[in-house]
Amino acid sequence: MSLLLDSVSYNYPGSTHGLHDVSLDVRTGELVAVIGPSGSGKSTLLKLVAGLETGHTGRIVLGGDDMSRTPVHQRHIGMVFQSYALFPHLSVLDNVAYGLKLRKVDTAERRQRAQELLDIVGLGDFAQRATAQLSGGQQQRVALARALAIDPRALLLDEPLSALDASVRGHLRDQIRSIQQRFNATTLLVTHDQEEALVMADRVAMLKDGRLLQIATPREIYEHPASRAVAEFVGLSTILPAKVAAPGRLDMGFAELFAETGTRPFGTAVHVLVRPEHIQPDPAPDSVNRLAGRTGAQRYLGALTRYDFDVAGAGKPFLAESAAPAAEAIAIAPEHLRLLDH
Ligand SMILES: Nc1ncnc2c1ncn2[C@@H]1O[C@H](COP(=O)(O)OP(=O)(O)OP(=O)(O)O)[C@@H](O)[C@H]1O
């Protein structure tokens, strides 16, 4: 079932904060990750889709039905939040069966369905436990089973992994993704963890100040960010100002570099984005876009070393990653200098 937001705007009462003219579509079975800095409107977007906040303008359409005036419980949406929010006085099984009870599904059927879902999330043997006896990761899996038990029209995940430690998070990330795909659940996932977004999502939507800056596949948003704000938020990079000096040539102030300048006229001011993995250490002396300098701070990451490389006059170091840091020069292939117009 597809989910469409069409020019959705919302202000919290007495405030200018909220969402501003956000349009996006989530296709049936698609997982769209919503990212953005703190206060950018991620949770607000989810609450509007869920119906927990009301009074927006524009349309929220689920499977062809405009939900804008539909109360929370009639939207038939599954939700998983950061805080596990399980009912502590109910067993694991009864937690999962809860939504079915509200929908008046008979006892035998809802117990069977809840047990099936617990099996799917790998907690089949925990049905009779109290929720307090579960780890954080297990509680989040119960929350996911509970959200899916009602056969929801859409699934909303609000930072479902952020309270968990890194080792559990990585594993659960894969598990949630595979269950989401198995159920073909149309899903919005809010996360502040951009790696989580890139790994899990079919597409990533970036919000800032209540506005949608870009929605694109993980690869597209990483390799072709629509603006400086997106480039700075998604992945590591070095971003420097430059001017078009001639077709295919950039004046960086400290050097002239070859780059794909497109149809931009002479003198156009741009910013140049370079990803760490695109910086080649110690190129041949006659290499294109060779920059001499010296290595600064280094962080050993196992297979790779991440390091700063200082080029005189650049104003800030280039952030690079390679098996070994550069000794005296780096080079950046012209196609890896990404020009940002705003
Ligand atoms: N109940 C509220 N009343 C007034 N303003 C609010 C309310 N809830 C959130 N806001 C404001 O709306 C904006 C968007 O908040 P929201 O919680 O959606 O951001 P977020 O991207 O989810 O942030 P975070 O990553 O910190 O959770 C922020 O400026 C926030 O201060």
Structure at a glance:
This protein is α+β, with helices and mostly antiparallel strands.
Report on the architecture of this protein:
This protein has 342 residues and is of the alpha+beta class. 26% of the residues lie in helices and 32% in strands. The chain has nine helices and 21 strands. The strands form five sheets. The chain has a six-stranded mixed beta sheet with strand order 6-7-8-3-9-10, sandwiched between helices. Strands 13-12-11-14-21 form a five-stranded antiparallel beta sheet. A four-stranded antiparallel beta sheet has the order 2-1-4-5, covered by helices on one side. β18 and β19 form a beta hairpin. α3 crosses α4, α3 packs parallel to α5 and α4 crosses α5. The model has no long low-confidence stretch (mean pLDDT 94). It binds adenosine-5'-triphosphate (ATP). It comes from Acidovorax cavernicola. One of its GO terms (molecular function) is transmembrane transporter activity. One of its GO terms (cellular component) is ATP-binding cassette (ABC) transporter complex. Pfam families: ABC_tran, TOBE_2.
